[in-house]
From TrEMBL:
Pfam families in alphabetical order: Aminotran_5
Gene3D superfamilies, alphabetized: Aspartate Aminotransferase, domain 1, Type I PLP-dependent aspartate aminotransferase-like (Major domain)
Record has Transferase as a keyword: yes
Keyword annotations from UniProtKB, A to Z: Pyridoxal phosphate, Transferase
InterPro entries: Aminotrans_V_dom (IPR000192), PyrdxlP-dep_Trfase (IPR015424), PyrdxlP-dep_Trfase_major (IPR015421), PyrdxlP-dep_Trfase_small (IPR015422)
Annotated protein name in UniProt: Cysteine desulfurase
Class of the enzyme per the UniProt entry, highest EC level: transferase
Lineage, top ranks: Bacteria, Pseudomonadati, Pseudomonadota, Alphaproteobacteria, Rhodobacterales
Amino acid sequence: MHIDSEWVRAQFPAFAEPSLQGQAFFENAGGSYTCQQVIDRLHRFYTQRKVQPYGAYAASRMGGEEMDEARSRMAAILGVMPEELSFGPSTTQNAYVLAQAFGQMMQPGEAIIVTNQDHEANTGPWRRLAERGIEIREWQVDPETGHLDPAALEKLLDEKVRLVCFPHCSNVVGEINPVTEITALAHAAGAFVCVDGVSYAPHGFANVGDLGPDIYLFSAYKTYGPHQGIMVIRRALAQLLPNQAHHFNGDVLYKRFTPAGPDHAQIAASAGMADYIDAFHAHHIGGAAEATARGIAVHDAMRAHETALLQPLLDAMSARNSVRVIGPTNADERAPTVALALDRSGVEMAQALAERGIMAGGGTFYAGRALSAMGVDQEQGVLRLSFTHYTTKAEMDKLLNALDDLL
């Protein structure tokens, strides 16, 4: 399906911002532009509802209603129940709280499986449980491709494993991991599953209900929203894990894993992400559909647009002897987050691109374990080029021309 890029970009004030004119944004994996719907809700909350929510007076009541709206509408898009979705200050913080809960529930000698494909900020909290006597097993990537082989996971699974943690896709490898298949393997072995969706969610919200993991985490600031971590914990697991919040909040599922007070305004503004999905659906697809179906349709449209733009970049880079493309070179198998190992520093290359109006990133991106496993020099790092559905063919052409000049 063809995306109306003019309409899409009109939903994002950054594209009309004079200071950003002439700049093509290719560091979306570090955080996306924010849509107008989120900005409008945030502004309204700060100007009209900036009081303690859930009180008897109108401003307080409406503030609480907007927070509840955000939870219920985002849960519907993700295919889960509203009480299974909670907000926190960041995905890393959410993962840390969850790790504390599992650490309290598990016994020394029991095991958690993590990968070396993960973003360090989200695998680190699990690895630290080794200090409590919990065994940490590492599901390792293929050193040539960065691929996580489910057959290798099966060899790590036994009756000691209580949890399997892995990314929906890595922030440098980019390959989309088969969440449903991996979840089935883990569940068959009696383990719970935690999926880091941070690098996947910007390319269309996943139907977590269909995918099947027990935990799914992502960051709203990478999905056109405010700086919040969004966490789905399915009811059966949420009730089993020890409460991490104030004792008087322990019987409220979505409060059990939020030990600090929530950011009222940013939670309320998160409903703007649902507004954007609905507006996108109405403009491009139309017709009546329930929220989960709208989310799936928009997800598929975004993915199709991104995949069409991504393949020429992968083809051009994989044809160069001086460039190593990290991860798959088939756009259908990956997200449009492309790490390139070059014969020079990734940071230096990003600086050279910046001088040509390309905003990109260089370094290791908290993915040192994955890059080291694949033989990438940590000092040199990689150049990372990442985009979303609001990127245009003209911007891709500008990027390819700049890369041609520099390589």
